[in-house]
Amino acid sequence: MTFTLRPMTEADWSDWLAVDEEAFGSTIPPHRAELFKGNTEFERSLGAYDGDQLVGVTAVCSFTMTVPGGPIPVGGVTAVGVLPSHRRRGVLSALMTRQLTDLHERGEAVAALYASEAVIYGRFGYGRAADSMIFDIPRHGGALAPHAPADPSLRLRIVKPAEARGIFEKVFDAVLGSRPGLYARTPARWDAALSDQDADQGGAGPLRAVVVEDGDGPRGYALFRIKASWNDQGLPDGELRLRELFGLDPAAYALLWRHVLDRDLVSRIKSWNRPADDPLIHLLADPRRLNAIWVDDLWVRVVDVDRALTARRYSAPVDVVIEVDDPVCPWNARRWRLSADTSGARCVPVDDPADLVLPVSALGAAYLGGRTLTPLLEAGVVREARAGAVRELSTALSWEPAPWAGLMF
Ligand SMILES: CC(C)(COP(=O)(O)OP(=O)(O)OC[C@H]1O[C@@H](n2cnc3c(N)ncnc32)[C@H](O)[C@@H]1OP(=O)(O)O)[C@@H](O)C(=O)NCCC(=O)NCCS
């Protein structure tokens, strides 16, 4: 099959939507299509054409993302879809290869994405870099432990989300640098996050919000919906669906959870997107009541080994020669010496013997600091040529807190 690749323009918008709708087997409501468009940088999109017909799409969002040590530009890959009539003929492979070349030429050293299925992106050099948790907590198991921080100067205020956006933005901007994976939100991204039409509600009513504040201003917020219901015995059986919860300090964080876990007429609290190291695990009086399912969050692609590895900070000094296997981006496929300490890093091409050999996806997996390399060694993904080299690199790359992007894109 032959097809051509080119960026799409506004004139291609309805075809683009049609490809994504068909690929995902879903319908995008008009207001969500507008929000999607508001977050689209057409010049960073890519369409695959079979003759005149658009058959495959993808796009990149220009993110500023926190990585260990600070913010860097990251290409946020999104809207990937191939028409079912044209699948498994190499359309995605062509789009991904061209997109990575574009990122390389643009000088964006790192790309990240959310995957609809975990089997798709490893072959293009993406590694599972962050995890998130789906929480399901019965309200009767939601009591906090006696040690949970409390601050009597804090108070809660119920707010209307549409009116409190400035507060959310202020709190979010203050936490943004604290966790690898979080990315700065543009106004259009906030528009989408706070969209609250019927089609956004999933039968669970309007978006609700509570803000925690002290005399100096907001210290955190929680966004959620409540699906009210009663069971056959006439007992309240509501479900609180938590969307976001950010606190600027432990007491604010605990107070928000106290509120969310103890709303009247609610029997369970669900959240589809919490960080893997959520402090809630240590705040609950009975942590076994927290039912958690572990899922993948961000997948990361190191587009340029040297630029990516020098753009982040390290937790410990390291000096290793890494042989990188990267058939999709041949400019990475060679041996590199990474010399880093806690103040900075150098990464240069060398011909010295390798201390360890890894696929570029393993570097992507470890890039945000949340994935240790020893399990990848034991799983046969990474190979060690000098004893101890894997642990040295893994220790240097590791970071706290665990990476997490917070909002799907
Ligand atoms: C996922 C999707 C984009 C793949 O597009 P495609 O053009 O069929 O992919 P390609 O033909 O380039 O496939 C490349 C390789 O990946 C494999 N692959 C692609 N998608 C796969 C999937 N969903 N499951 C398993 N393997 C998959 C192919 O079998 C092929 O393997 P091979 O190189 O060993 O032959 C397409 O199936 C799709 O649009 N799916 C629905 C929407 C979606 O999930 N999008 C991704 C959003 S993150």
Automatic annotation (TrEMBL):
InterPro entries, per database record: Acetyltransf_17 (IPR041380), Acetyltransferase_Eis (IPR051554), Acyl_CoA_acyltransferase (IPR016181), Eis_dom (IPR025559), GNAT_dom (IPR000182), NAcTrfase_Eis (IPR022902), SCP2_sterol-bd_dom_sf (IPR036527)
Keywords: Acyltransferase, Transferase
PROSITE patterns in UniProt: GNAT (PS51186)
Signal peptide: none
Residues at the catalytic site: 121 (proton donor), 409 (proton acceptor)
SUPFAM superfamilies documented for this protein: Acyl-CoA N-acyltransferases (Nat), SCP-like
Residue ranges of domain N-acetyltransferase in the record: 3-151
Positions contributing to acetyl-CoA binding: 80-82, 88-93, 116-117
Molecular functions (GO terms): aminoglycoside N-acetyltransferase activity
Coiled coil: none
Domain of life: Bacteria
Biological processes annotated in GO: aminoglycoside antibiotic catabolic process
Recorded family membership: Belongs to the acetyltransferase Eis family.
NCBIfam families: PRK01346.1-4
Record note on quaternary structure: Homohexamer; trimer of dimers.
Name recorded for this polypeptide: UPF0256 protein
Record organism: Planobispora takensis
